[in-house]
Structure to design on (388 residues):
């Protein structure tokens, strides 16, 4: 349970988790000190996960000469191991003294000049959570590859559709909130997006999004890796189960059918990400495998993860008996392969015979093939009534 140490004050606590940020940390601390409102006392907490590049030591040495910039007190928390971004933020919150908490990265992808807007939205306009958003009007991303943008969009789609969140950018790592809204909550801090957990577990709060331009880091290296992605799916699944027994079960068969179809499509989108990442890893990172062989491995991996996610989430089947699971997996592979053949056949027919443009033909073929795949798996793989 998250311990609360709420003070009746006007202080703001800024949490900055770090790992190998020696090139950025002092610069970000100076920038924060320069832009903070003069009438508000602030506490900046650097939470370092025992960075091999000496980030924590750099801050420690810096604090021997500079304990405070203007009304901004700086503190450092040294952690002995790299325990993850979510738990680092949680550790900072536990030590925070402010009634308003700001969370941001150290690499300047989160511009410090947005901090006063976050604080003003909470202090002056009394919002409970304020999200710096890349995906509302006025927000944008600079410096990302197409692959990274697609991955981010799909992850956001999964969060919004799977968890029923209206916020445009629930995956933002740059946000502020009133400390009081998490009082009594059990924050697990699984994965790297603690905002997502707060959005799911808080009820009846006022949320505002303000646009900002996300700029890809210039110094240091990205922390995104396969483990981060797997942790994200794990956290989404756990958040999906959060409070589920308390939710009234939907009785209308049409709504239940559409809900499961939406889950099936969402899982399919996640399979695209898995396919892409695995294929690329085997071509250029893990080995120099021939691209066709790597693609086959990516397809097998995506079909397998799609099967597991659909079994657990879409069709809510928890029986993993060996004989039953192997039988279901075999049917799932067959129907997925049929769906791929249907998609290819439709694209060929629509382009060559109907003279439809390839992009439109592809979209129609994917939608129809995926829907047929869903119906077949629902009826024959997981033995459900068609409209249940």
């Amino acid at each position: 349970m998250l311990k609360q140490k709420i003070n009746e004050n006007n202080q703001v606590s800024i949490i900055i988790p770090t790992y190998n940020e020696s090139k950025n940390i002092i610069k970000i601390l100076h920038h924060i000190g320069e832009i903070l409102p003069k009438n508000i006392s602030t506490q900046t907490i650097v939470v370092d996960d025992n960075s091999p590049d000496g980030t924590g030591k750099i801050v420690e040495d810096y604090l021997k000469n500079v304990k405070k910039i203007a009304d901004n007190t700086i503190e450092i928390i040294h952690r002995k191991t790299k325990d993850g971004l979510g738990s680092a933020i949680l550790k900072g919150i536990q030590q925070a003294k402010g009634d308003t908490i700001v969370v941001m990265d150290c690499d300047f992808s989160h511009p410090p000049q947005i901090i006063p807007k976050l604080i003003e939205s909470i202090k002056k306009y009394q919002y409970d959570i304020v999200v710096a958003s890349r995906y509302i009007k006025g927000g944008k991303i600079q410096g990302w590859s197409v692959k990274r943008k697609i991955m981010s969009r799909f992850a956001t789609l999964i969060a919004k559709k799977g968890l029923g969140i209206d916020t445009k950018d629930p995956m933002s790592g740059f946000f502020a909130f009133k400390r009081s809204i998490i009082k009594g909550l059990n924050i697990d801090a699984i994965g790297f997006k603690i905002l997502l957990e707060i959005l799911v577990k808080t009820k009846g709060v006022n949320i505002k999004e303000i646009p900002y331009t996300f700029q890809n880091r210039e110094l240091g290296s990205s922390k995104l890796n396969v483990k981060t992605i797997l942790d994200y799916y794990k956290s989404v699944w756990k958040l999906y189960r959060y409070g589920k027994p308390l939710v009234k079960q939907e009785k209308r068969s049409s709504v239940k059918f559409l809900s499961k179809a939406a889950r099936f499509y969402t899982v399919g989108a996640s399979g695209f990400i898995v396919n892409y990442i695995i294929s690329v890893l085997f071509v250029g990172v893990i080995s120099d495998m021939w691209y066709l062989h790597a693609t086959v491995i990516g397809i097998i991996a995506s079909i397998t993860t799609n099967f597991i996610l659909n079994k657990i989430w879409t069709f809510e089947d928890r029986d993993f008996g060996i004989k039953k699971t192997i039988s279901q997996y075999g049917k799932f592979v067959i129907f997925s392969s049929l769906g791929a053949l249907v998609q290819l056949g439709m694209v060929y027919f629509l382009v060559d015979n109907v003279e439809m443009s390839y992009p439109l033909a592809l979209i129609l073929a994917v939608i129809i093939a995926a829907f047929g795949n869903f119906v077949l798996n629902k009826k024959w793989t997981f033995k459900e009534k068609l409209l249940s």
In short: Residues 12-239 form a domain with the Spore Coat Polysaccharide Biosynthesis Protein SpsA; Chain A fold (CATH 3.90.550.10).
